[in-house]
């Protein structure tokens, strides 16, 4: 009999099929992605790693509909997103995706609570108060809700960003270098919260990172080199990721 984890992982939340992304035209074209295929399953935490310029951010932007693909297809749930209009993509991102960025991207004039509730408000959804409370408590933000971002540490600001991303119960949470601006203690905390969202709430997470320690929180690591996935590592540890990266960077 299959374990719960195995069954859970069978549900495909996001799928990239032969995605090509070229910037510019003809002679000047830069091929950031050269035929990337990957499947992201429900409740799975994937880290994307690779040398600088290998296409990690481009891949995340294409998967989340921020950047149009040159060819290939991307599916979120049962929706093919490469054919959607700008308005449909905005709605999709707001309702079905969560985002955490390196630079936190909180609105400075809003309190932590207002920032957390913002995406749901924009989507016109009524907040689920018990889910709000669960997230706020699990991220240790209860005592900080009335503070503005400038009154919070970097780690607290990123926890607010994670709470904002989780509040709409997104099908997939995309994180681009979420610990890039944090000291190692705050970074460890944020990674622990992302891991907890996967383990406790079956959140699907796709995270770009340069850091082998951050990648070790994931269930698997996909390695990009020159716009192609060249390797995959399941059950990553810091040392295994580090060794694999050393080999790729040659
Ligand atoms: N808007 C753009 N216009 C032209 N070229 C671009 C654009 N965005 C990215 N590129 C190019 O595409 C390639 C992949 O870039 P990308 O930012 O995805 O790499 P990355 O792996 O995320 O890099 P890093 O780790 O340095 O952030 C690079 O050669 C980059 O110069």
Automatic annotation (TrEMBL):
Keywords in alphabetical order, please: ATP-binding, Nucleotide-binding, Transport
Work out whether the entry's keyword set contains Nucleotidyltransferase.
no
Give me the Gene Ontology terms describing cellular component.
membrane protein complex; plasma membrane
Alphabetized GO MF terms = ATP binding; ATP hydrolysis activity; transmembrane transporter activity
The domain of life is Bacteria
CDD domains named in the record: ABC_MJ0796_LolCDE_FtsE
SUPFAM superfamilies of this UniProt entry? P-loop containing nucleoside triphosphate hydrolases (SSF52540)
Q: Tell me which Gene3D superfamilies the record gives.
A: P-loop containing nucleotide triphosphate hydrolases
- Return the protein name: Putative ABC transport system ATP-binding protein
Instruction: Name its species.
Output: Micromonospora citrea
């Amino acid at each position: 009999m299959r374990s719960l984890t195995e069954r859970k992982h069978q549900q495909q939340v996001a799928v990239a099929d032969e995605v090509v992304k070229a910037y510019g035209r003809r002679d000047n074209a830069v091929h950031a992605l050269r035929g990337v295929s990957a499947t992201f399953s429900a409740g799975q935490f994937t880290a994307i790693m690779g040398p600088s310029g290998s296409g990690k951010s481009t891949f995340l932007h294409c998967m989340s509909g921020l950047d149009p693909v040159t060819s290939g297809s991307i599916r979120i749930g049962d929706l093919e997103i490469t054919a959607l209009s700008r308005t449909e993509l905005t709605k999709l991102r707001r309702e079905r995706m969560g985002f955490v960025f390196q630079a936190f991207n909180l609105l400075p004039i809003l309190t932590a609570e207002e920032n957390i509730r913002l995406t749901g408000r924009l989507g016109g959804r009524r907040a689920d108060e018990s889910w709000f409370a669960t997230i706020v408590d699990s991220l240790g933000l209860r005592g900080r809700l009335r503070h503005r971002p400038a009154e919070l540490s970097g780690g607290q600001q990123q926890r607010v960003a994670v709470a904002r991303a989780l509040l709409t119960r997104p099908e997939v949470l995309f994180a681009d270098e979420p610990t890039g601006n944090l000291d190692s203690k705050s970074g460890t905390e944020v990674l622990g919260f992302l891991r907890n969202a996967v383990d406790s709430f079956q959140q699907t997470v796709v995270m770009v990172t340069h850091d082998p320690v951050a990648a070790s929180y994931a269930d698997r690591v996909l390695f990009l080199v020159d716009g192609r996935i060249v390797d995959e590592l399941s059950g990553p540890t810091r040392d295994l990721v580090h060794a694999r990266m050393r080999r790729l960077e040659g």
